[in-house]
Amino acid sequence: MQSPLLAKLTGRLGARQALLEWKWMNEAAASAPSKFSLQDMVRRRCFGEPLQYILGTQPFGPLNLLVRPPVLIPRPETEHWVIKLSETIRPTAQNPCRLLDLGTGSGCIPLLLCHLWSPGSVHMHGVDISPHAIHLANENALLSGISTPSDGTTPRDKNTFGTTLASFLIPTFPDELFQIKPPFDVVTSNPPYIPWKEFLELPRSVSDYEDPRSLFGGPSGLEFYEAIARFIGRKGMVSPDGVVALEVGRGQANAVEELIRTTGRVRHTEIWTDPWGVERAVVGRM
């Protein structure tokens, strides 16, 4: 006989998704019964709260990152292109690179690259406008064993990750931010890219819990890409042989590719497709 709680979950999610989530909820309840109650988890899920926020973690490659509202939950399509980027660029401790992640959120992009690249090969910095995101990204760095030197030093034998609370929409970014020291060899971003019409149609499990600032990309969805293009177009921000890797929304790849090409600094671009056939990342080489 089916559990009443599972039946309730099935009525909300459908049989297949309910069985998957029921399995994960039971695993959580078994591992920490004082923290996780099946009844409470099902109640919260049926109200629309994302399971990742209920469990408090989200796998991202080999990492298991902390997640909590309102910081954007890392998505599998982001994981896919980040892993591909890690296989495309191969920094070494002898020739380390410097990476800037714009709109870092949970820190998922730089922290996964820190984990996948060899020790001492990369020094990364994440920027976000949300104090919640900055705090969570630093927690995830600690959880992932990534060095976050507070004195500004960059140990040769370790990959490092630092953060700055700032908006990269400001035309003068990153002037007067002493923590951000260009030029950078790699610039990554999964910026807000949902246009107004689609934003209004988001499911409540997204719009009610995740920060609108991490979702809404302006009326056209391209506002943050315009800011990124302005940044990489400024002299001295990106190394002469640098790489820019940007996640994009459905149908935006060509427009974003054109934006970064019009800077006059990007020589070659590629569009990467995600496992579901969507053009998901635009990668440019200086």
Automatic annotation (TrEMBL):
Entry keywords, A to Z: Methyltransferase, Transferase
Single Gene Ontology MF annotation: methyltransferase activity
Transmembrane segments: none
BP-aspect Gene Ontology terms: methylation
InterPro entries: N5-glutamine_MTase (IPR050320), SAM-dependent_MTases_sf (IPR029063)
GO cellular component: mitochondrion
Protein name: S-adenosyl-L-methionine-dependent methyltransferase
Organism: Macrolepiota fuliginosa MF-IS2
